[in-house]
Amino acid sequence: MKFEMWSIWHILFILSPFIIMPILYFSLKNKSYKTRYIVGVVIGVISLAILIIRNVDIYLSHGFDPEIIPLQVCHFGNIMVFISLVFRSKIATSILWSLNLLAAFSSLIVADALEGYQTIFCIRAQAYIWGHLFIVIGALYSVCLKIVRIDFKSFLWGILVIILLLIPSIILNSYFNDVLGYNINYFYIYDSRGVPFEFLYIGDRAKYGWFTINWIYTLSLSAIFGVILYGIYNIQKLFYLKDKDYKTYNIFQKKNI
Q1: Which residues have CB under 8 Å from 193's CB, separation 6+?
Q2: Residue 169 CB neighbours (<10 A)
Q3: Is 5 helix (H, G, I), strand (E, B) or coil?
Q4: Measured between alpha carbons, how far is residue 205 from residues 19, 174, 199, 215, 255 in Å?
Q5: Fewest CB within 10 A of the end CB: N or C in the chain?
């Protein structure tokens, strides 16, 4: 079976979080925190397992490939789901909620990458489908079921982590593309592929030996997404209007659940 954009299956793919998440929410909202946490752990473990299976399949099929390095936004998003829901990490949840949720849901809508597979039942295609879906579900679950509450400090730490991941991504994008001839676009920061802000990609790439970079695109895209992340971060506050004193305890702190 081959995937087709805007087919009934694609539409169901887009709508699936709006079907699955309400079922989880209304089934678990009145359950104990321990029950909600255990379900979250299951979601987190499955999310990480999807990424591992995908990368093992790539390695066994092609050997080393830059696609294995989890610097694509949605690939380290699967890791953030695991850390957020298993360790109740506010920093991981901040990244997951503010950045990965938007990127993963966009990938449900713009799923043309699936058209490149001969069948949607191959491992890579299934990893794309379930990997992105579990990021969306994981991000919504962590906040809607009140597993983790993000504070501004954790948001700032999340931004710092993103920056620390972004810097090597910029360098590796240039190395893999310009030197080794791969087709890599970590953080969508190498060029405007898959990004709705193509108009920002103006001028030529500056060259420093083997390293190249489009400064206008890189800095303006980073600034725009910084504003977007801050806006999304503030949305989660709405879920805690009645629980202003709600606190999150990670698994290393003594707290009965």
Answers
A1: 185
A2: 23
A3: coil
A4: 44, 10, 15, 7, 52
A5: N
How far is Cα 201 from Cα 198, in angstroms, rounded to an integer?
6
In sequence order, the β-bridge partners of residue 206 are 213
Start-end of H helices in the chain: 8-28, 33-62, 73-87, 90-95, 101-109, 123-144, 152-174, 215-235
List the structure tokens of 241: 């209007």
Q: For residue range 9-29, what is the model confidence (pLDDT) as tens digits? A: 999 999 999 999 999 999 999
pLDDT above 80 for 148? yes
Residues 6+ apart with CB under 8 A from 170: 186, 187, 189, 190, 213, 218
pTM score of the predicted model: 0.94
Which residues fall within 8 angstroms of residue 10, CB to CB, at 6 or more apart? 3, 4, 111
Counting beta carbons within 10 angstroms of the beta carbon of residue 64, is it exposed (0 to 12), middle (13 to 18) or buried (19 or more)? exposed
> Which pLDDT does position 257 carry in this prediction?
75
Token pair recorded at residue 105? 């849901």
Residue 110 in contact with residue 56, Cβ under 8 Å? no
Q: Rounded to whole angstroms, how far apart are CA atoms 123 and 6?
A: 22
